[in-house]
Structures are given as C-alpha cells and as structure tokens.
Design goal:
Structural class: alpha/beta
CATH topology: Rossmann fold
Shape: globular
Strand content: 15-25%
CATH architecture: 3-Layer(aba) Sandwich
Number of domains: 1
Strand order of the largest sheet: 3-2-4-5-6-13
Helix content: 25-40%
CATH superfamily: Response regulator
C-alpha cells in the first residue's frame, strides 16, 4: 500500500551551500512554464516609443476593463516561453493518468542510467560527481554517459540504458522535445524517467518530473538587491550586462528578471512603487525587449542607464573575459555589472585590470547563477555584491533522493508537477550565515493537488 506524501521536501545531503538559478543544459516545452503566484492586477504594458521613455510609460496605466498586468505576463509567456522561466500557472492539470512506469514493488540495489548533457563546465562535472556520491550512499550502481551537447549522442545513450534494462533513467536534456520518443520507449519498457534542464517540461510528457532552475527569479533577486544597495533617487546609475548567448531560457529569463527586480526596487526607493510585482515584471519585459533590440536603454525619468550588453559565447572565464573586453572598451564608465554566471567572473577580472577597475571597490558586480563555493567566498570577501544558489549538488541529490523515495519509501510520484523548480536562495552579506538553513529545501517536490491548493490570486510571484 503506497502512502501518499503529497509534498516532499528533499533535503540536500552533501551540498556545498547555496543560492539558485540552474544552468543544467536544455529542456524545452511550455505548458507548465507560466507563472508562480499572483498579486494585485494593475498596469497594462506598452513599450515606449524610444529609448528615453520611462519604465512607468513602458508599463502603462491600468484599465478598468483591460487585462491586468498578471494576465499580460501570462499572455507573453504563452507566446515566448524563454523570458519568464520558473513562473507557473495559477492551477495545473492532473497528471495521474499518464503512465510513468512507476515501480509496482519496492526494491533496492538499483542501477541508474544518467545521460549528462555535457562535461564542459565545472557545474556539469560536479553534477556527475554528486550523483555518483549519492548513488554510492544508497548502494546503487551509477552508469554515466556524456552526450557532449549532441542530441543524437544523447539518444544513443538513452537507447543503451533501455537495452541494459536499468531501473531508472535520468536525462540532463540537450533538448527536451527531442527526448520525448526516448521517454516513451523507456516507459514502454517499464523504466521510469526523470529529467533536468533549463526549460519547463510539457505536462503531457511521461517523465516523473523535470528539475529546472527557474531562471527568472534568481535574476529578479539579483536586480532587486543591486538596486537596494546601489540605486539612489535622483542619481543616474550606469549598468552593463555580460550574458551567455541570447536565445536560451536561462539567459533571457535571468536578464529579464534582473531588469524587473531592479525596476521594482528602484521605484520603491524613488517613492513611486509599482502596484504589484506583476506590473514591474511587465515593465521589465518591455524594457528588456527594447534593450535587446537597441543595445541600450536610457531611462531619464527613472535615473537608470542600461548602457550596453555583450554576449560571452561560453559561460566560463574565457567567455567572460571576451565579453567584458568588448563591453568595457565601449563603456568604461560602468558602475554596476550584471554578469549572468559566477564562472565568468575570473575572466572578467582580467579585463578590468586594463581599466584600473577592481570588483567590490570602484565596480560592483551581481550574478544570477552558479553561486557555489567560489561564489560564496567572493560574496564574503566583498568582491561580488550578490549571487544566487545554483548548486549541481542540489540537482543531483534531489533527483537521486527522489528515486530512492519512489523505490524504497513507497512515495507516490504519480501526480507531481511536471517541472520542479530549484528554490532561488540569495547569497549576499545578509544571508551568508543562513545558507545551510536556506539550502535545506533547495529542491521541493510537490504533488499537483497540493500545488493547486497553495496558489492564491493575491500573492506576489517572487517570495
């Protein structure tokens, strides 16, 4: 008899500490990637006619008969799933009727096949090591295959796991829709599948759930904290952006979130707060679209100047160095730098020396992802203003822990949310001493009935 734990909070067992935003390689589809909670409806959004329009004008005024800002955010997400990754619908449809090949009888001694998207960064390497360590702790056999960012190779990896009749398969997706046939083949052979990646999973897919960083919220937290620490009413702040290549949900959602959070907090400081977070999200989205298209966004009335953006090419130190060189050559007067990934910072520092700039002194930097050991140390030293928890340990511990609960603890995983978002935990000078406590609930596994019961039309989406 299965006991139905409707919500399971999987604790991190050997996590390094910290704050969220995940870079796991791609998983795409869309239905469940719409919006987390809800707030007071308000402004309707129209982009300004030129680069000097204010964020207030961008958000536009509320209409008694028109759609709320919240409804407009949902509408944007339906059309463009890249920009609000991690924002869920008000209610989710039941998934209990989808066959997921859940085990009929409890058993241990499992063999788990893990298809990794890549080993090209420290994040992916640590994800592999953490999964292996957790498997060893449970007495499981861990079989790893590296897809090397190639869909065809990942397809071969999963086919091999099916032929080997492993007990469960984990896919760190190179491309989620491309893996749907593999999921179906595995389930047809009685093998359950869990995915991880950087986009939301379609609720109709037969995987148990898919872990995702929920990239919008880490960006929002980084932007709001940066504004809180650096923005002063009546004084223009010049901000530059170093991002991973555009066109992925991680990059687009983190940067969009940074702008939304920055506008939300700066408006409060200026004494002109948005009616709700949804209004700031809508305004931020319109500013982000202008910024992408024009390469700058200078808001004279709100005293913010998003002066330029450079793409890294790769989310690592060489990519950060290259992007920073391009950006600071054109704009050496930047006061605040948004750098998407902590792994870029070492390379960015090399470039900054040419301009006599020192992080934490005459230039502040805020990151939205990969805040693990090095990121924590940099926040403690004052080098980095802000980072967000995106621990590969949290991903691996959570997934292997979920498999253990299903196979050995009678956990009913038949109706979980299709996408499980890593909690966004801020790393700042205020939270350094609380990180172990905050990280204890890094990957919350939630049944759909509990999710639906918890939603409120009057709650802000960013808690």
């Amino acid at each position: 008899m299965k006991r139905s734990k409707k919500t399971v909070l999987l604790s991190l067992i050997s996590v390094i500490v910290v704050c969220a935003a995940v870079f796991s390689s791609g998983c795409g589809s869309v239905n469940e990637n719409t919006a987390t909670d809800t707030t007071n409806p308000a402004d309707t959004g129209a982009a300004p006619s030129d680069n000097t329009g204010s964020a207030d004008e961008t958000a536009s005024a509320p209409s008694a008969s028109g759609p709320s800002a919240q409804d407009q955010v949902y509408s944007i997400l339906d059309q463009d799933p890249l920009v609000f990754n991690g924002i869920l619908p008000k209610q989710l449809d039941d998934r209990s009727g989808i066959d997921k090949a859940l085990p009929v009888a409890q058993r241990g001694g499992l063999t788990i096949g893990w298809s990794g998207a890549s080993l090209g960064t420290d994040f992916f390497t640590q994800m592999k090591l953490a999964a292996e360590a957790r498997c060893q702790a449970y007495g499981y056999t861990y079989v790893y295959q590296n897809a090397d960012s190639d869909v065809a190779t990942q397809t071969e990896n999963v086919d091999a796991f099916i032929s080997q009749q492993v007990d469960a398969i984990v896919i760190n997706c190179v491309d989620l829709p491309s893996m749907l046939p593999e999921m179906k083949k595995a389930v047809d052979q009685g093998i359950p599948v869990i995915c991880c990646g950087n986009q939301a999973c379609d609720p109709s897919y037969p995987c148990i759930t898919m872990q995702n960083s929920g990239a919008y919220k880490p960006g929002w937290l980084a932007g709001a904290y940066s504004a809180d620490q650096m923005f002063q009413a009546g004084e223009k702040l010049t901000v530059g952006f170093v991002v991973d290549p555009l066109g992925t949900s991680d990059t687009e959602s983190r940067a969009n979130g940074f702008i939304g959070g920055f506008l939300y907090e700066s408006h409060k400081i200026s004494g002109n707060p948005y009616p709700s977070q949804w209004d700031a999200m809508l305004a931020g989205y319109n500013v982000w679209e202008k910024f992408k298209n024009d390469g700058k966004y200078d808001d004279a009335s709100d005293n913010i100047n998003f002066i330029g953006m450079s793409q890294s090419g790769t989310p690592d130190a060489p990519g950060g160095q290259k992007a920073a060189a391009e950006l600071f050559k054109a704009h050496p007067d930047i006061q605040l730098l948004y750098a998407e990934d902590r792994e870029m910072v070492t390379g960015i520092e090399i470039t900054l020396k040419q301009y006599n700039l020192t992080l934490g002194k005459n230039l502040q930097i805020a990151c939205a992802a990969d805040g693990v050991k090095d990121g924590i140390a940099d926040v403690q030293s004052g080098k980095i203003l802000f980072d967000c928890y995106n621990s590969p340990d949290a991903v691996s511990d959570g997934i292997i822990g979920l498999i253990h609960s299903i196979f050995e603890e009678n956990f009913d995983a038949n109706n979980l949310t299709a996408t499980t978002y890593l909690n966004s935990i801020p790393i700042s000078k205020e939270t350094i001493g609380k990180l172990d406590e905050l990280a204890a609930n890094a990957l919350p596994i939630t049944a759909i009935p509990d999710y639906n019961a918890s939603m409120s039309n009057n709650a802000d989406p960013i808690q």
